[in-house]
Amino acid sequence: MKVKVRHIVLNLLWVSVFSPIFIYTYMVGTFFDPSFSRLDFLDDVAAFTLSGDTSHLHVVPLETSTALKKPVGVVYSDHSANSFPSEVTEHKSTRVLSAASEERQPLLNNPITQANESQLFAISLEEQHTLPPGKIEQKEQSVNKSYEMTEAADVQVHRIKDLLIRAKVYISLPAIKSNSRLTRELRLQIKELSRAIGDAAKDTDLPKSAFEKLKAMEQSLEKGKQIQDNCGASIKRLRAMLHSTEDQLRVHKKKTTFLAQLTAKTLPKGLHCLPLRLTTEYYTLDSSQQNFLDEDKLEDPRLYHYALFSDNILAAAVVVNSTISHVKHPSKHVFHIVTDRLNYAAMRMWFLCNSPGKVTIQVQNIEEFTWLNSSYSPVLKQLGSPSIRDYYFRAHRSNSVSNLKYQNPKYLSILNHLRFYLPEIFPKLNKVLFLDDDVVVQKDLSDLWSLDLKANVNGAVETCGESFHRFDRYLNFSHPLISKNFDPHACGWAYGMNIFDLAEWRRQNITEVYHRWQKLNHGRQLWKLGTLPPGLITFWKRIHPLNRSWHVLGLGYNPNVNQREIERAAVIHYNGNLKPWLEIGIPKYRNYWAKYVDYDSVYLRDCNINP
């Protein structure tokens, strides 16, 4: 009996005292043991049963395994986030939970972890839905409003044009051609829609009926789309039309450039008649009648001297007439006109018959400058070389549109290069105002002679307002001689109205600088033909910039020259191919030039030169 009682006492002690101690020490040991997973311990506790009842061991009520689903991993771009703020926020929180669940995947099998995760997910969704829906709608409306404001003003015009192109392509497809009813419908829609769009450039220019016809065209095209199942044929046809149009555009641009250059080179019939008529009259005069008055003023440095080199009699007359009409003291102004042998007699005859009052006129023949020969001037030697002649007169050289503008006979004329020999032509003068023959003078230019050029040689208006008037437009900066000595972004300047300090020119020996660079450009590797590129080089860092109002350019190529600038300008320049004496001249600028032409002259009437 005593043994039995002792056995019962030991069992009670084991259950009530030793078992808890054993379990506690086991838990503490495994907690600090890195090889033992805490997750295993949680799983053991969760699986621990007593008399088959496990309900009292759960801290929170369990949910079934299907209660918590893995969130969908949706990622939106920045633009979509602006359009759908509520959805993106929801998915953003979902992605966070998804990432956390992937990191703690083993815990999902645990009931306690499942319960906690479910409650956290529910809390996050509850917080998300607290965002006022009015703010979301307001944000969406602001996004839509900003999109509408940036929409192009001509979107409907482009849409109509696209529909017209599609309709023309559809008509050419075999499947559409076989349907005569749809073909007639499309032709009618094309005609009406083309009439509705007219010359409209913006949506506001479209009539109200255009939008109704647009919808009708879309309906007709939808019918054609259902008939034409093979889109590949349409794509091929559109691509063929695109290539054909591009080829035609290139051909037309080349023809336009060529014809413009040809027209600029061609002398109108009236201007061809005028020197012939004047030359005939000149040689009928006595030798005493062929001389100008006041020849003693030609070398007086105290007077205002102008240099004009031209073979165009009418253009030279406009320059002289426009200049003297604005001067205060005509007797102090002297014009030195240099022309070629063919126009020498005609030029003298014109100014003998049309004397400009008290202004002194001198007309010289370039053939009389015996010092100007190929042994002295490198440019004369180059202009007479076979390679230059071949460049101009071989037909196959004209294939390049970019080179057409350089193939102009004026570049072969030494008259165009006389501007680099001013000290030799006027050895006793200190200052000379150089004028091109395509300018019109609108104000008195006398103040230019008193201008201090600050040890510079050339007073000119800079033309760096536009990118194509920089040095890199005219010079070949791939050549080391150019890239080493000049700045590609330096401002260009304009020929046509330039005040030259000849004393400073002689002191700095500018003519020798010009000769040296002309020799280096023997193969046209530094620049193409012309006078502006060598002028930029020769007068590099020797330019005194004048106010832009002294000289306004562009009237020979730009129809959008500012009208106020033209009115305020002292000199306006018809640089470009659209000269005012040609039929292709810009009409709205023609009167500035024509008002200085004496159309009542008997010589102009005989040659049928009219305003």
From TrEMBL:
GO cellular component labels: Golgi membrane
SUPFAM superfamilies: Nucleotide-diphospho-sugar transferases
GO biological processes: cell wall organization; pectin biosynthetic process
Membrane topology designation: Single-pass type II membrane protein
Localization per Swiss-Prot or TrEMBL: Golgi apparatus membrane
One MF term in the entry's GO annotations: polygalacturonate 4-alpha-galacturonosyltransferase activity
Residues passing through the membrane, by range: 12-32
CDD domains: GT8_like_1 (cd06429)
Enzyme class: transferase
Keyword entries, A-Z: Cell wall biogenesis/degradation, Glycosyltransferase, Golgi apparatus, Membrane, Transferase, Transmembrane, Transmembrane helix
Enzyme Commission designation: 2.4.1.-
Gene3D superfamilies given in the database record: Spore Coat Polysaccharide Biosynthesis Protein SpsA, Chain A
Pathway: Glycan metabolism; pectin biosynthesis
InterPro entries named in the record: GAUT (IPR029993), Glyco_trans_8 (IPR002495), Nucleotide-diphossugar_trans (IPR029044)
Similarity annotation: Belongs to the glycosyltransferase 8 family.
Protein name: Hexosyltransferase
